[in-house]
Amino acid sequence: MRPAIRVYTERSRRVKHRKLGRTGLEVSEIGLGTEFLNGQPRDTVVAVIAEALRAGVSYMDLLFCFQDYLDNLGAALQTAGGKPTIAGHLGCAETDGQYRKSRDPEECDRNFNDMLGRVGIDRVDVLMIQNVDAEDDYQQIVGPGGLLELARRHREAGRARFFGISTHKVPIAQAALRSGLFDVLMFPVNPAFDAMPGDVSPWEASAVGAAAGSARRELYRTCAGEGVGLVAMKPFAGGWFFRPDNPSGITLTPVQGLSYALSQPGISTVVPGVKNTDELRAAMRFLEATPEEKDFSAAIAGSAGTVQGSCVYCNHCLPCPSLIDVGETLRLLDIAEHHNTDNVRAAYAALSVKASACVECGECVDRCPFGVDVIQRMRRAADVFGS
Fold first, then answer.
1. Are 315 and 327 in contact (CB under 8 A)?
2. Tens digit of each residue's pLDDT (9 = 90 or more) over 295-306
3. Taking the domains of the chain in order of start, what are their residue ranges?
4. CA 54 → CA 80, 232, 327, distances in Å?
5. Domain 17-290 belongs to what topology?
6. Are 207 and 200 in contact (CB under 8 A)?
7. In the chain, which stretches have pLDDT less than 70?
């Protein structure tokens, strides 16, 4: 059973915005995934899009090439009268109404152009190559005659601005980052999947609880350090958190799931998938949630993959007597120790209270569910950033 839904009100804060990596685009930190709007009645799709845009959502991911799905989204955007930042996809096809992955450039070209026409737009802001989970698939995509070549042609023709790739596996994501060919990475971010080894697909349920390294979190830090926009998909672990047979053993509310994703390094926006306005409202409840409602620390403490001594940026340690934003300070430190770029240093410089203000009272250490030596990390931050 899904958690009880509390409708957000007109007094809610509008969604905050973040930079989508080096693209320079400003996107809402809560975006909208449209996967589960496929197959819904048009009036439902229209209502969801209109309400999302009113709440300040400004990033939408258009996943499929189904005609009814695209027609409904086009009608919804026309009715709402707004144009968010839109990510469209190459690599999707359908047979007898069922999704299938395609790497045929001609087929993908037809489907992409059909998507533009049905949605009623001239271009997408991000052109994603979707569902790349195997090394040979990745090499085909970036090689001669692959989908990246097709994406370039669309950009040259003004039908796309930036390139993205979606994957569920860390090795493919890291290869994409090393290549410098992609501006945006779409990747699942949630505590259940973060408990898995980086080369394991989240849908291999038997892998839940396997000994996990830090590969996924290192990926997030790499995105932050190198300016690749990180779009967090599946913040609710594909609905696992709401199921009685949840294989992860972690139960989170929608607010806590979004809070976890948005707390991780490198995240530009998180795209929860919803199928109606009730589910949208459950997600947008984040806008007026209290810090206690956003706190996910108790839910994941002791779960598989939670490494004692590692900060998960939950801010359960607050309030700090010196008014240090502990979670953000440690997040920036973790990034800097791997990728100490001008952007990271600028973000630290913008903090109103620096790590050097720590009086080592120990209150944060006592509150931390994960045994982080916050005092030592504050000393380290002051040394790395010089204040």
1. yes
2. 999 988 866 556
3. 17-290, 326-385
4. 9, 22, 30
5. TIM Barrel (3.20.20)
6. yes
7. 1-13, 198-213, 302-307
